[in-house]
Amino acid sequence: MANYFNTLPLREKLNQLGVAEFMDRTEFADGVNALKGKKIVVVGCGAQGLNQGLNLRDSGLDVSYTLRKEAIEQKRDSWKNATDNNFKVGTYEELIPNADLVINLTPDKQHTSVIKAIMPLMKQGATLSYSHGFNIVEEGMEIRKDLTVIMVAPKCPGSEVRAEYLRGFGVPTLIAVHPENDPQGKGLVEAKAYCVGTGGHKAGVLRSSFVAEVKSDLMGEQTILCGLLQTGSILSFDKMVEKGIDPGYASKLVQYGVEVITEALKQGGITAMMDRLSNVAKIKAFEVADELKTIMRPLFQKHQDDIMSGEFSRVMMEDWANNDKNLLTWRAETGETAFEKTPAGDVKIGDQEYFDNALFMVAYIKAGVELAFETMVEAGIKPESAYYESLHETPLIANTIARKKLFEMNRVISDTAEYGCYLFDHACKPLLANFMKTVDTDIIGKNYNDGKDGAVDNKTLIAVNDAIRTHPVEKVGSVLRKAMTAMKTIKTV
Amino acid sequence: MPKPLVNITNLNLEYQQNEVLKGLNWQIFYGENWLLGGKSGSGKTSLARAIAGLEKSSGDIEINFDPSSVLPKQVVFVSSWYQFTNLEGDRNFYYQQRYNKHQQNDTLTVYAELLKFAQEEALDIDDVSYYLDLFGFSNSKNTQLIELSSGENKKMQLIKALWLKPQLLIIDQPYTGLDAASRKNLNRVFDDLTSQGLHLILISNDDELPDCINRFAEIKNSRLVIVNNKEGITKEETRIKKVLPYFLQQAPDISAKSMVRMNNVNVKYGDKQVLHNVSWEVKAGEKWLLQGPNGSGKSTLLSLINGDHPQAYTSDIYLFGKKRGSGESIWDIKEHLGIISPELHWYFDSTARVWQSVASGFYDSIGLFHDLTHDKQRKVDEVLEFFDLKEYKYELLNTLPLGKQRLVLLARTIIKNPELLILDEPCQGLDAVQTQHFNDIVDELCTHGKTLIYVGHFETQLPTCIEKRIILKNGRVEAIESLTESIF
């Protein structure tokens, strides 16, 4: 199988990368009609599989689950998940031949073997759905020409997909139709109906393409979402301990700080996050972020280039073939870092203190979000897609760190994201070594405002505010966030 | 004379810029057990939390533990709402979660939670079995916290507090959601522990108090007023009857003669069977009472009717004339009914204002995600007026006193004038007068062609319109009967 993207002429590359249309609520007026009475079979019953299936059935659709024979015979968790909720469960041979829509919600890594097993069983003219396009775009899986291939990707963990649906709302969702596989022209209609069935149409839907989804998703997860948060957490913690801050305090400030800081990001973008700082602190954070952006930009560009050329997925798939040797080594190393091993201290840290005492984290997150967004857009990805894969997901990942630190983050995210995260982290730490020598506790560990009178120069403040507010990520963000305002706060603290 | 156990002088306390307590003085001596009563919103909970050191206040609160007592020198406060977190420490639950089965455990089991508590508080785990037996909890050790009903969660809270046996125990609404047998047992334990040196402050408006209660007080005008007995405590004003808004005087559209019909329904979680062969029919216009001890399956039964239970799909259930699982969505089902339950209240959107909470009833959502038409806005205003809630329209729901919150949720339940009302313990935590007030409204609503399913533990506190009763015990139907006048 050849990398699909690399087989395309430049014209078509740009064409597919550039699909990004924020859809209006009225486009979903038909509800679930396009799938009413059709047989929907979900492959896999983990968190996404189970919760999406529960929602689809509660929307009046006919849902059953298919699992590998061994999973059924051994009554594995996926089998229990499905049967405990009174779903019909069967083998591929039993259920796939009658399915009108097959929804593949297995882990990315299994896609090739799963698709090879189910494709010959699928009936003529049926539809196959993915929630991530890696298999199609990077691995180059070719799907039978009579089949329609769509993508419906809720941009939240499975438990949230269920919780928001039952509240009567939904989670932001990305939908796409693969241009090589839409023989009847029904792809978009079915993707929309599926999206309505999960409640996604209420919280903002972005029509994307397989290519745009993969290239932006990989970029986001490697850099700002996982890699940058991992590097930032470790550097911040180590610096504080080096400078004599109590390790328990440092551990807590980082672990919960990323969540508190990014909650402001989620609600009001970088502007809201920076506005939580005093004027003097904001100007300082702006300057620090600028410096960080200059240092890290080449690394962000390298990641984007390797993703576009297919180099990243080639190297990662080599590791898959090598029994994940690198991945497992790096995962073990993360478990051994001082940050991971120091429990959060039993100290009370106020909401505002997480900003005032962690100016460096605020600056670092600002730098990361803006860099990821800018680099993606420069590479031909539309601002809407770039927003989802940078700013939008940062609070969701930060929430996993608040739960159980980096180990938890790396457990929850996909192996692909985890692999990219370590690549970024290993390159970023040495890159920042000299800069970190200049960092002291005034920007990480202690309140930056202490001992300052708070006075700022008017012109500087105006210029800084202006630069923050007019950044393109803020412009597109304010439009997209309006559609998601009813989303509930996920809070650990 | 020994020093008082609690000596409060000149206590001041504010809640959201409002003065709640001002210059309050209170002395509690050894051997005294107090009932703190009075109107909702008078500051009882704030005072209790201040004594336990959970609320910021100015003035003096001095606690002088009895040095000769063997009981721990500790003040323990039990709040009226239970709370637990999932294994990852967050509280982002939804109220139907206990019916959605997932292999990965979301919460600890009852026993694991008690073990953890024993470790934190240096208690002997063997000592807890007495309390588990007392509340009929011994068989629930392996149940996950998320699977407990609201009454069972209350019991968990009480078991922990009693197990600690502190010198001073303050309980806010101890009887909320408890069945009759558990209330009796609880009172017996109160009498027993107080004889061993435990001191009790109960915040309650209940009639059946333990014998050990020997002092009575209420808060009036931000100060403590001591009275001679519980009859001396000020009651809520009785409500002046109002005319129902016009749109609620219209009989709702009736979709079928048989609203609910279920045949031999079973609900199972793994090996644990929660409902056994339940058959039941609710015809249009009938007014039902659903009763049973805590954990008998009442809420599970209702969840089969309101679309919340995933196992309904494979059961023989007809709702509003349609077979369940024949292509209807849960929103199609919810459109026909209005529901209020302790769980729904517990998990309700904490960012919702009163008017939004009411308006969300048009869409059966938890929180409002739509713009309202003028007609719907007018209905919200009319309903708020009818419930005397107009002044709270723009307040956050969860800042209102409990009784008012319940009324808001009842308003949410009826705003679309549904054909079926499901009121699952709607008066939990309300006092006798508030309950009377609430049930009077239910009676008024039900004169206009509605069907009612009402869950309540005490025959003395029911709407008068009720005519039939179904009783559950251990997940089985114990009785289905017509009610004669005699029980009222």
TrEMBL record, chain A:
Metabolic or biological pathway: Amino-acid biosynthesis; L-valine biosynthesis; L-valine from pyruvate: step 2/4; Amino-acid biosynthesis; L-isoleucine biosynthesis; L-isoleucine from 2-oxobutanoate: step 2/4
Cofactor note: Binds 2 magnesium ions per subunit.
Catalytic residues (UniProt): 132
Binding locations of Mg(2+) 1: 217, 221
UniProt cross-references to SUPFAM superfamilies, sorted A to Z: 6-phosphogluconate dehydrogenase C-terminal domain-like, NAD(P)-binding Rossmann-fold domains
Protein name in UniProt: Ketol-acid reductoisomerase (NADP(+))
Keyword presence, Oxidoreductase: yes
GO CC, any one term: cytosol
Role description: Involved in the biosynthesis of branched-chain amino acids (BCAA). Catalyzes an alkyl-migration followed by a ketol-acid reduction of (S)-2-acetolactate (S2AL) to yield (R)-2,3-dihydroxy-isovalerate. In the isomerase reaction, S2AL is rearranged via a Mg-dependent methyl migration to produce 3-hydroxy-3-methyl-2-ketobutyrate (HMKB). In the reductase reaction, this 2-ketoacid undergoes a metal-dependent reduction by NADPH to yield (R)-2,3-dihydroxy-isovalerate.
Lineage: Bacteria, Pseudomonadati, Bacteroidota, Sphingobacteriia, Sphingobacteriales
Catalytic activity: (2R)-2,3-dihydroxy-3-methylbutanoate + NADP(+) = (2S)-2-acetolactate + NADPH + H(+); (2R,3R)-2,3-dihydroxy-3-methylpentanoate + NADP(+) = (S)-2-ethyl-2-hydroxy-3-oxobutanoate + NADPH + H(+)
GO molecular function: isomerase activity; ketol-acid reductoisomerase activity; magnesium ion binding
Residue numbers binding Mg(2+) 2: 217, 389, 393
Organism: Albibacterium bauzanense
From TrEMBL, chain B:
SUPFAM superfamilies, A to Z: P-loop containing nucleoside triphosphate hydrolases
ABC transporter domain segment(s): 6-246, 260-487
Annotated keywords: ATP-binding, Nucleotide-binding
GO MF term (any one): ATP binding
Classification via InterPro entries: AAA+_ATPase, ABC_transporter-like_ATP-bd, P-loop_NTPase
Top-rank taxon: Bacteria
UniProt protein name: Molybdate transport system ATP-binding protein
